[in-house]
Design goal:
Length: 315
C-alpha cells in the first residue's frame, strides 16, 4: 500500500503541489478533473486534446517518483438541472477518455441522484419507504434514469480499460452496501467502490463489515478520511444533520483529520481488512476537516498513517 493524497485542498500550482507532496513523504496523487472538484491541478480539456501537455503532465509526476492513483470527477452525474447535469456527464466521460490516454486504470465518481417525474431542477433523495410516494419515486429514479445511464456508462468505461470507483455518499442514489451492489449488477464489473469510511460512520455502518462484504476485485480505490461522532447530538438528533458543516461543535458529526474521529487501533483494523480483501493500492488522504488548515491536516494524517500502513504483500 501507498500513502496518497487527493490534491484538491492544496492551494498551489501543479508543480508546487507536487513538490510539497514529495516533501511530506506522500507517494501517490489523486487529481480532480471537475464537477464537485475545482480541479486546480488538472486541466481536463487541455490534457485531453494536447499530447504534448499530457507528456509534460506525466513527466512532472513521474520525475518526482510519484504515481497517479486515480482521476476524480465526483459530481451529480444525474442532476435534473439541464445545464448542471449535462456538464457533470461531460466531465465524467472526458475523464474516462483522459484516463485511457494517460494509461491510468481508475477514476473516482459518484452514482448521481436524479430528480422526479415533474421535471423540477432539484435532486430528490428518497430515504424512507413509509409514504408510498417515496417508494414510487425511488423505483422511477432507478428504472427511468439510473439504470439507463449506468447500462451505457459501465461498458463505455470497460471499452476504455478504465474502472469506475463509486464513492458511496449520502445524497446520492448509491450511498451504502446494498445500493452499490445493485449498481454493480446493472453496470458490470467495471464499476466498483471508492471506499471512504467517513461517509459510513454517521449512517450507522461499520466499514470493517462493508469491506469483506464487497470483497476482492470490488474495492478499486480508498479515501483516508475520518469522522467524529458527537454522542450527545447523535442520541438526540441522529445522523441526518442539515446544519452547516463548519459548526463542528453543534453538529451530530463532522469530517476530521485521521485519528481525530477514530483511534489507531481502529485504523489498524481498517488497513488489515483492506489487505485481507486483496486491496494493495493507495490510501488517498482527503482533507475536509473544518478545524485545520489543509497543510496541518495532511501532515498530521501522513504521520498518523505511516506506522500503520502495510507496504509489502507476503510471498
Amino acid at each position: 500500500m501507498k500513502i496518497g493524497l487527493f490534491t484538491d485542498s492544496l492551494q498551489a500550482s501543479f508543480t508546487e503541489a507536487l513538490d510539497w507532496v514529495v516533501e511530506q513523504g506522500i507517494e501517490a496523487v489523486e487529481l480532480g478533473t471537475g464537477n464537485f472538484s475545482p480541479a486546480p491541478h488538472c486541466n481536463l480539456d487541455t490534457l485531453l486534446n494536447d499530447e504534448d501537455a499530457r507528456t509534460a503532465f506525466t513527466a512532472a509526476i513521474e520525475s518526482r517518483g510519484l504515481m497517479v492513483s486515480a482521476l476524480n470527477c465526483n459530481g451529480n452525474l444525474l442532476d435534473p438541472h439541464p445545464e448542471r447535469g449535462q456538464k457533470s456527464q461531460d466531465v465524467f466521460y472526458k475523464t474516462i477518455e483522459l484516463a485511457n490516454k494517460l494509461g491510468l486504470d481508475t477514476i473516482v465518481t459518484m452514482s448521481g441522484c436524479p430528480g422526479d417525474p415533474s421535471g423540477a431542477p432539484y435532486p430528490n433523495w428518497p430515504t424512507h419507504p413509509h409514504q408510498p410516494e417515496f417508494a414510487e419515486l425511488e423505483r422511477w429514479q432507478w428504472n427511468e434514469v439510473i439504470i439507463p445511464f449506468w447500462k451505457k456508462a459501465g461498458p463505455f468505461a470497460a471499452d476504455h480499460g478504465v474502472k469506475i470507483a463509486i464513492e458511496m455518499h449520502p445524497g446520492q442514489s448509491v450511498y451504502n452496501t446494498r445500493t452499490i451492489l445493485r449498481l454493480r449488477e446493472i453496470a458490470g464489473p467495471s464499476v466498483g467502490a471508492n471506499l471512504d469510511p467517513s461517509h459510513f460512520f454517521f449512517q450507522g455502518m461499520d466499514p470493517l463489515l462493508v469491506i469483506p462484504t464487497l470483497g476482492e476485485n470490488f474495492i478499486f480505490h480508498v479515501h483516508a478520511k475520518d469522522t467524529r461522532l458527537n454522542p450527545y447530538e447523535m442520541a438526540l438528533n441522529g445522523g441526518l444533520d442539515m446544519r452547516p458543516e463548519h459548526l463542528v461543535g453543534e453538529r451530530s458529526w463532522a469530517y476530521r483529520t485521521l485519528g481525530y474521529g477514530h483511534g489507531e487501533v481502529w485504523w489498524r483494523d481498517f488497513v488489515s481488512a483492506l489487505r485481507i480483501a486483496g486491496y494493495d493500492g493507495a490510501l488517498s488522504i482527503e482533507h475536509e476537516d473544518p478545524m485545520m488548515s489543509a497543510a496541518e491536516g495532511i501532515i498530521k494524517s501522513v504521520k498518523f498513517l505511516e506506522p500503520l500502513i502495510l507496504r509489502t504483500m507476503p510471498e
